[in-house]
Design brief:
This protein is of the alpha/beta class. The chain is built from 18 helices and 25 strands. It is globular, with a radius of gyration of 25 Å. Bound molecules: fructose -6-phosphate. One of its GO terms (biological process) is protein N-linked glycosylation.
C-alpha cells in the first residue's frame, strides 16, 4: 500500500528519500511526492502521478534539495490517482504524508472549510494538514498541534510532518499503520517499512500503536498514547541471504519463485530433529500450550487465506483437531462462536494487512486460548501483538503476487500440524513421515522449477483466452484456488477454481474449446475420483492441462497435455504443485505483456481496510 520515508541529516536528504521510495514502490504506486526544507528556504514540494521514475523526472526538471524531508508513494483510497491528490499535502508552512485512512475526514473537512481552509485535493490526508495548521496557529507549538490533531482524528494512520518554522525537526506518529525510526550517525530517518532505509541504516526503533515522536539529527523523543515519554529500544534488522535486487531475473516474481528452495530451507532451519519437530521453537512451555489446544480458527486474507485452507485438511486429518478457516474481512465483523481452548492462528506475509490485524485485535476479547501469528516479517504489528509467533524466513517479497511467502507459510503450517500431532501422540510414523517429507522439499521444488521451459510453451495457449478453470480435490483444491488467484492478478484473465467434484453441479456448462481447464492431479487417494471429473471436461472438448505425478500413465491428445512432477509424500504435495501454477501464471502474464511485479490496481501490503 502507500509508503512513507522521511529523513533529517546534515547532507542533502533527497537521494535518501528517493531511494527509499524506490524500495517501497512495490507497496503502492499510483503517484509519489517529496517535500524538503533547506535552511532559509520554505517547503519545496514536488509531486507526480505514476511511478517513482515520474517523480525523479520532475525532480530533474525542478530540483528540491534540503536537510529535512518527507516522501510518499500513494495507492489511492480517497480521490483518484492524480498529482493534486499525491502526498505530501501542505498547509500554511507545513507538509504531511500519511498512510492509512482518516475515517472522520468528512466532518473535519466541513469544519475546516467553514474556518476558511482551502482544499486542493479529495484526500483524507489534506484534512490532517489543515487541522495541524489550525492547531499550530493556536499556540505556535508543533508538538502540541500534533497532539491536538491526533486527539481528533479517527482511523488508521502513520503520519510524518515537517514545518518550515522548524527546519531541524521531523515529527511522526502511528496508529494502525506501521512506522519505524531509523538511527544513523547524526542522522535520523523514518519509514513505513525498514526495507526503505536499509541503504542507510539497519538499526530501528519500532513505534507502537498510538506513539508519536519528535526527531532531530541528535535526538529521538517518543511519547506513547497516554503522552508518557517512552523508550522504544533500537533493534538491529536481521539481514537474510536474500538480496533486494532482481539480479539476473527479469522480474522479482520470477526471482522469488526460484528462491523457494532457499526460502524453505531457511524456514526449516533449526526446526527439525532427526525424526521429530523441535517444539521449543514456539517457547519453553510450547508442549503444554499445544497440548491444551482443542480447536483452531485460522484467519487471513488472499493467498495467506489459501495457505490456511490447506492447513485445515492437515490439522483435521492428522491432529484430529477441529479447524475452521475464514477471510479476515468477514471474521472481524461477525459474531464468532469460540469453543473452549481454541487457538486463533493469523497468517500474513507482511504482518501489516489491516483486516488480519483487526481480526487479531477483535479476537482478544472473544475467549481464545491464545493467538499465534505465522508471518514473514519479524518486527511487524501482527507478530508483536500475537501471543505466539511462528516466523517464515522467505526473505523480502517484492513482487505483488505472493509466491515464496505462500510456500513457506505452508511449510510452517505443516510443521505446526506435526507439532500438534507430536504433543498428543508422541513421535509417531506420521510425525517422522512429515519430518522426512519437509526435509525433502527444497530438492523436489528445485526439480519442479526445471519444468519452466515446458510451461513457457504452455503459456502461449492462453494468449487469446479470457477465462480459465482450475480444478483440484482435497488439499489441492486450495492450491487450484491459489493458481486461479495468481493467474487473475497478474495476467488479468478471469479464472475460477472449483473442487473438481463440483464441476457437474454447474461450471461444466462453461466448458468448450475456448476454455482452458487446469487441473492439479497428484497421485493421492483422490486421483481416481479426479480422473472421472477430468473425463467430463474432455468429453466436452475442453482444453485440459494436467499437472500430475510423472509415474502415472498419461493419456494425452490434441486437447489434453499432462506435465509430470516428481513423486512426493502426500503431505507435501500441495506445496510442490504450487510451483508449476506460479510459473504458468508468470509466463501467461509475460505473453499478455502485463506489469508482472506491479499488476494494475493492486498493492503489496494492504494496510487499509
Ligand atoms: C496475492 C497476494 C494477496 C495477499 C493478501 C494478504 O498474490 O499477495 O492476496 O496474500 O493481500 O497479504 P498478507 O499475507 O501480507 O497479509
Amino acid at each position: 500500500m502507500c509508503g512513507i520515508v522521511g529523513a533529517i541529516a546534515q547532507r542533502n536528504i533527497t537521494p535518501i528519500l528517493l531511494e527509499g521510495l524506490r524500495r517501497l514502490e512495490y507497496r503502492g504506486y499510483d503517484s509519489a511526492g517529496v517535500a524538503v526544507i533547506a535552511a532559509g528556504k520554505g517547503i519545496q514540494r514536488v509531486r507526480a502521478a505514476g511511478k517513482v521514475i515520474e517523480l525523479e523526472n520532475s525532480l530533474d526538471a525542478l530540483p528540491a534539495n534540503g536537510h529535512l524531508g518527507i516522501a510518499h508513494t500513494r495507492w489511492a483510497t480517497h480521490g483518484k490517482p492524480a498529482e493534486h491528490n499525491a502526498h505530501p499535502h501542505v498547509s500554511h508552512g507545513l507538509a504531511v504524508v500519511h498512510n492509512g485512512i482518516i475515517e472522520n475526514h468528512a466532518p473535519l473537512r466541513k469544519r475546516l472549510k467553514d474556518l476558511g481552509y482551502v482544499f486542493t485535493s479529495e484526500t483524507d490526508t489534506e484534512v490532517v494538514a489543515h487541522l495541524l495548521a489550525h492547531h499550530y496557529a493556536e499556540n505556535n507549538e508543533l508538538l502540541a498541534a500534533l497532539r491536538a490533531t491526533l486527539a481528533e482524528i479517527h482511523g488508521a494512520y502513520a503520519l510524518a510532518v515537517i514545518h518550515e518554522d522548524q527546519p531541524e525537526t521531523l515529527y511522526c506518529s502511528r496508529m494502525g499503520s506501521p512506522l519505524v525510526v531509523g538511527e544513523g550517525s547524526e542522522e535520523r530517518y523514518i519509514a513505513s517499512d525498514p526495507l526503505a532505509l536499509l541503504q542507510v541504516t539497519d538499526c530501528f526503533r519500532y513505534l507502537e500503536e498510538g506513539d508519536y515522536a519528535r526527531l532531530t539529527m541528535n535526538t529521538c523523543e517518543i511519547w506513547d498514547r497516554n503522552h508518557q515519554v517512552v523508550d522504544r529500544p533500537i533493534k538491529r534488522y536481521e539481514h537474510s541471504a536474500h538480496s533486494l535486487d532482481k539480479g539476473e531475473y527479469r522480474h522479482f516474481m520470477l526471482k522469488e519463485i526460484f528462491e523457494q528452495p532457499l526460502a524453505i530451507s531457511e524456514t526449516l532451519a533449526s526446526t527439525l530433529g532427526n525424526d521429530h519437530v523441535l517444539t521449543a521453537l514456539l517457547g519453553p512451555d510450547a508442549e503444554t500450550r499445544l497440548a491444551d489446544v482443542a480447536n483452531i480458527h485460522i484467519v487471513a486474507c488472499g493467498t495467506s487465506y489459501h495457505a490456511g485452507l490447506v492447513a485445515r485438511y492437515w490439522i483435521e486429518a492428522q491432529a484430529g483437531i477441529p479447524c475452521q478457516v475464514e477471510v479476515a474481512s468477514e471474521y472481524r465483523y461477525r459474531t464468532v462462536v469460540v469453543p473452549a481452548n481454541t487457538l486463533l492462528i493469523t497468517i500474513s506475509q507482511s504482518g501489516e494487512t489491516a483486516d488480519t490485524l483487526a481480526a487479531l485485535r477483535y479476537s482478544k476479547n472473544q475467549g481464545y486460548l491464545s493467538s499465534l501469528a505465522i508471518c514473514n516479517v519479524a518486527g511487524s504489528s501482527l507478530v508483536r501483538e500475537a501471543d505466539w509467533r511462528l516466523l517464515t524466513h522467505a526473505g523480502p517479497e517484492i513482487g505483488v503476487a505472493s509466491t515464496k511467502a505462500f510456500t513457506t507459510q505452508l511449510v510452517a503450517l505443516l510443521w505446526l500440524t506435526t507439532a500438534l500431532v507430536q504433543v498428543r501422540n508422541g513421535i509417531t510414523e506420521q510425525v517422522t513421515n512429515n519430518v522426512r517429507a519437509l526435509r525433502s522439499l527444497p530438492d523436489v521444488i528445485a526439480q519442479a522449477l526445471t519444468l519452466e521451459p515446458r510451461i513457457t510453451l504452455l503459456a502461449e495457449r492462453f494468449a487469446n483466452k479470457h477465462h480459465a478453470l482450475f480444478l483440484g480435490r482435497g488439499t489441492h483444491y486450495p492450491i487450484a484456488m491459489e493458481g486461479a488467484l495468481k493467474l487473475k492478478e497478474i495476467s488479468y484473465i478471469h479464472a475460477e477454481a472449483y473442487a473438481a467434484g463440483e464441476l457437474k453441479h454447474g461450471p461444466l456448462a462453461l466448458v468448450d474449446e475456448d476454455m482452458p481447464v487446469v487441473s492439479v492431479a497428484p497421485s493421492d487417494s483422490l486421483l481416481e475420483k479426479l480422473k472421472s471429473n477430468l473425463e467430463e471436461v474432455r468429453a466436452r472438448g475442453g482444453q485440459l492441462i494436467t499437472f500430475a505425478c510423472e509415474t502415472i500413465e498419461q493419456t494425452d491428445d490434441a486437447n489434453h497435455e499432462t506435465i509430470g512432477l516428481p513423486w512426493v509424500e502426500e503431505c507435501i504435495s500441495p506445496i510442490l504443485y504450487t510451483i508449476p501454477l506460479q510459473l504458468l501464471s508468470y509466463h501467461v502474464a509475460l505473453v499478455k505483456g502485463t506489469d508482472v511485479d506491479k499488476p494494475r490496481n493492486l498493492a503489496k501490503s494492504v494496510t487499509v481496510e
